[in-house]
Amino acid sequence: MATWFWIVIVIVVVVIALVAAMTARRRRTAMLRQRFGSEYDRTVEAHDGQRAGEAELRGRERERARLDI
């Protein structure tokens, strides 16, 4: 096959991977917002951005799952 064909295939695969990653992140954010409500907003504000705040909330989820309540 021609080189340009392989280049197009690589570009398409990269675009699909980026779209999948963005969709997964949006879904994870929506789940955290739904689960924590206004605490989500406070935690994101208290940390250095959305990524750090969401990491904190995911840590809380893991800790709660670990506990026998």
Task: Provide key terms for this protein.
69 residues; mainly alpha; 3 helices
Helix and strand element order: HHH
Query: How far is it from the N-terminal to the C-terminal residue, by CA?
Result: 60 Å
Gyration radius, in Å = 18 Å
What does the overall shape look like? elongated
Instruction: Work out the helicity level.
Output: over 70%
Number of helices: 3
Walkthrough of the structure:
There is one protein chain. This protein has 69 residues and is mainly α. The protein has a domain at 35-69. 87% of the residues lie in helices and 0% in strands. The protein contains 3 helices and no strands. Helix 1 packs across helix 2 and helix 2 packs across helix 3 (50-66). It is elongated, with a radius of gyration of 18 Å. 7% of the residues are buried.
Short description:
This protein has 69 residues and is an all-alpha fold. The chain has helices at residues 3-36, 38-46, 50-66.
Please render the helix and strand layout as text.
Layout: H1 3-36, H2 38-46, H3 50-66
